[in-house]
Design brief:
Length: 607
């Protein structure tokens, strides 16, 4: 019931009941409780009427600052890079002007604008990171002064810190833990959302990054929509905000969903993103929606970009699917990291008719290769899919909507970054419902020693998989098309203690050979002499360094790659420096480069 409902109810009260409140108590004692009820209603109505002004949703009531910034001009016709000064309006996610959460957010913003102006403190922190208590993980704190300021503002406005981030085994596990299996979508929504990132903090702060797949219906939605969704409880200290450029260009309007949710919509013809705010009595929802879709096409031999803006009606169609009244309800703690779940010691596990079996786990110190055997129920094809109107297409099986598998270790990897790939391979038994699922990850060694092992035998690893999804790429809709889904959780312990961590150096003196570095204007291979200064071979791949070249050793156009030749004559290709199967280092005779140059290991295998 809102304030207008109360006013209408009061207007219909009988006059004698209102007058009775002013007559002697002895005469109307039997009406005393009813008079108290009326008085309470009047008081509540007065409060609600007073709050109606505060609850007005507008850009002005979310703004904590208007500032001028210098940015590059986005106009390719200008040639050299140009700059312009524009006005930005800074909007807080904390709540409306006048609330404690808003005031705390405004003071934090003002503090950060003047704090560490030359970034000296942040640079020092990046060189020597300091671990701050997990209660401050939502605030990007990098100094004691920042921690003290957060404490000061939280105490001043009687707000709670967001608290530690709750870590689950995967995004989907977190959603299940929170009772939000549909994510941000209403249960009746005829759409799907692929969650790329989901974060939840102990005191209720919730964040989503997801791709929304709308029902194509009339052909209006041949693309995914990128969205973010943030919920900040009104009793929590929140520092999140967005900065909107060209304030005079932005249009704002209010919209009420069919569920009665009052929204503020902000969008601009010059921006690809729109912002939606929903002020609830218990907090604020801030949502970003990609309202302009960019499609890259070839036109007249040149790349062209077509921009398709979403209409207001389309945006409203999107917003009708979103649950702006989300209430996280934490439940099953077995879904969280560090909690007991599926016994990872079982190397063969079955969930809902789908069996995963850990067949092998190998590493050479920089690459790892894990092979899982997949067995689906009879009638389910794991290698090919035939759909009416489509040719046979290779089927991709992945974990979760986007990526809901995790491979973690108890040690920090000393690397400059890692790469990951996974795919199905024929297991050779002739059955459609069985295949090998090969997962590979590789890292580069530290700069001072590229040949050093990044993965070590003493590390303990855990492979966690939740939900299997089969799909293929539909070139017409430019999206993955899902064929089937298998819900379940599979978890395995991974050990690399018995793996081969040695490597072979195949170059003692610089070697010059002919490599394909690209193609000429007629599309022919462009060969140049390059000098190889190092070529190291490990059981799962290779690495090379050059004196005057920074490319690849493969000739992809002609499908030619370096080849490891074993002593018995068997050959193993190195495609993108990755061995197509494990290399027995003790059996290596030599390596053939694409122009026929032979490299022979000249140093013994090293650890």
């Amino acid at each position: 019931m809102n304030s207008m409902d109360f006013l209408k109810a009061l207007a219909n009260l009988e006059d004698d009941l209102i007058l009775a409140a002013h007559e002697p108590a002895a005469r109307h004692r039997r009406n005393w409780s009813k008079a108290l009820l009326i008085a309470a209603a009047i008081t509540l109505a007065t409060v609600l009427v007073g709050c109606a002004v505060v609850y007005v949703l507008s850009m002005e009531n979310l703004t904590v600052d208007t500032r001028e910034v210098v940015r590059p001009v986005e106009d390719a016709s200008l040639g050299s890079e140009q700059y312009e000064t524009v006005t930005e309006q800074v909007l807080t996610f904390a709540g409306l002007k006048g609330t404690p959460a808003y005031q705390a957010a405004k003071e934090w913003y003002e503090f950060t604008q003047s704090y560490d102006p030359d970034h000296a403190i942040s640079y020092a922190y990046s060189e020597t990171p300091v671990e701050y208590p997990s209660e401050y993980s939502a605030y990007g704190i990098y100094s004691q002064e920042m921690q003290d300021k957060a404490d000061e503002l939280a105490a001043k406005y009687s707000l709670k810190l967001a608290g530690p981030q709750v870590k689950a085994r995967s995004e989907q596990a977190l959603l299940r833990y929170l009772g939000l299996e549909n994510g941000v979508l209403k249960p009746t929504a005829e759409a799907s959302a692929e969650v790329a990132d989901c974060r939840y903090y102990e005191n209720g702060v919730l964040y989503f990054l997801f791709h929304l797949n709308m029902p194509d219906g009339d052909g209006l939605w041949p693309y995914q929509i990128l969205c973010t969704y943030t919920y900040n409880p009104g009793d929590c200290f929140t520092t999140d905000y967005c900065a909107i450029n060209d304030t005079e260009d932005w249009q704002e309007r209010n919209y009420t969903t069919a569920a009665g949710e009052n929204l503020l919509i902000l969008r601009s013809p010059s921006s690809s993103c729109g912002w939606i705010f929903c002020h609830r009595q218990d907090g604020t929802v801030a949502m970003m929606v990609e309202v302009v879709q960019e499609v890259y096409e070839e036109a007249g031999g040149e790349a062209a970009v077509t921009k398709t803006p979403m209409t207001d009606a389309q945006l409203e169609q999107v917003l009708e699917l979103i649950n702006f009244s989300i209430q996280p309800e934490p439940g099953d703690e077995s879904l969280l990291q560090g909690q007991p779940g599926v016994d990872p010691a079982q190397q063969r596990q079955t969930q809902n008719g789908f069996t995963l079996e850990l067949k092998s786990a190998e590493t050479d110190g920089q690459r790892m290769r894990i092979v899982l055997g997949v067995t689906a129920p009879e009638g389910v094809s794991l290698t090919k899919v035939t759909k009416e109107g489509y040719e046979d297409k290779s089927l991709n099986v992945r974990s979760g909507n986007n990526s809901r598998s995790s491979l973690s270790t108890n040690a920090q990897l000393n690397s400059s970054g890692g790469n990951f790939s996974a795919g199905l391979r024929d297991d050779g038994d002739g059955l459609d419902n069985t295949a090998n699922w090969v997962m590979e990850r590789w890292y580069s060694g530290p700069r001072e020693d590229r040949n050093a092992s990044v993965i070590t035998p003493d590390q303990e690893w855990s492979l966690y998989i939740e939900d299997l999804v089969a799909s293929f790429w539909n070139g017409e809709t430019m999206q993955d098309e899902t064929l089937w889904r298998a819900e379940g959780v599979w978890s395995f312990d991974i050990s690399f203690q018995d793996c081969d961590f040695r490597f072979l150096e195949c170059v003692q003196e610089p070697v010059t050979f002919s490599a394909v570095i690209g193609w000429d204007e007629n599309g022919n291979d462009d060969y140049h002499d390059v000098t190889l200064t190092s070529f190291t071979l490990r059981s799962l791949g290779s690495s090379a360094t050059f004196q005057d070249y920074s490319g690849e050793l493969s000739d992809y156009k002609n499908d030619r790659h370096p080849t490891v030749v074993l002593k018995d004559g068997k050959q193993i290709r190195l495609v993108a420096s990755k061995a197509e199967e494990p290399i027995p280092l003790d059996e290596v005779a030599h390596v053939l480069l694409v122009d026929g140059t032979k490299l022979t290991p000249v140093l013994p295998a090293q650890g």
